[in-house]
Design goal:
The protein is mainly alpha-helical. It has helices at 6-12, 16-44, 58-85, 89-106, 112-131, 140-146, 153-159. It has one domain. It is 72% helix and 0% strand.
Length: 160
């Protein structure tokens, strides 16, 4: 009897067409959400913080927060466009995971509820895009990877 991987067991009980459609739809929805969030942040002109004036580390926390805040809009625009177009999905997802973890560490929201519910679930969701090849279906990753004559480790990482 042949050993089945967990993925093979999951795919046997899954409608592959529906799963693929939902996976690509989720990728595009995350991209649209990233662009929407970037426009909301740009329109507001600022990101609110939970910093309290008068604390001993207020200035240091504020400096850390301002550095991260300056990255919000470009990161969300990049994530949005790359996910919608399906290009560089794997490396962008990995960079987004790093960004979420840095944001969680510097925003003062490291508590059991905040990490598990918001940041933890977001990291798990982004890890699906880092592991899967959603850019190959209705995305530029598939077109680019099919046209690379001699794929190497870097091109396989970038385009799946």
């Amino acid at each position: 009897m042949r050993f089945q991987s967990t993925f093979e067991k999951i795919t046997q009980g899954t409608s592959q067409q529906l799963f693929a459609f939902c996976f690509v739809a989720l990728r595009i929805a995350v991209g649209v959400a990233g662009l929407y969030l970037a426009t909301q942040l740009a329109g507001a002109g600022a990101v609110t913080s939970g910093l309290e004036p008068g604390t001993t580390s207020y200035d240091m926390q504020l400096a850390d927060f301002q550095a991260i805040k300056s990255l919000f809009i470009p990161v969300f625009v990049g994530i949005g466009f790359c996910f919608i177009l399906g290009v560089l999905v794997r490396p962008i997802a990995l960079l987004a995971i790093v960004f979420v973890l840095i944001n969680a560490a510097t925003s003062g929201s490291i508590n059991p509820e905040g990490v598990i519910i918001s940041h933890g679930l977001l990291v798990l969701g982004l890890s699906l895009f880092a592991a899967g090849g959603s850019g190959h279906s209705l995305g530029l990753d598939g077109i680019i990877s099919r046209n690379i004559r001699r794929p190497n480790a870097l091109t396989k990482f970038l385009f799946g």
